[in-house]
Design brief:
This protein is α+β, with helices and mostly antiparallel strands. It contains 1 helix and 3 strands.
Amino acid sequence: MPNLAPTASTPDLHVSKPSPSEPATASAVCHCGATAAARGDAQVRALVSGWNANHGSAHGK
């Protein structure tokens, strides 16, 4: 499987939850230069919410 982690040259949001008993993890890199990482279901939900509101496609609004 290819490395799906976002980088400065391939900005994006990546979320992983390997199994129901494992905590979720996420990493994000935006084309504006912002970066973030989270571990744990609640923190990942907060990162995704912030990404959707302030980065990624939100820059096009």
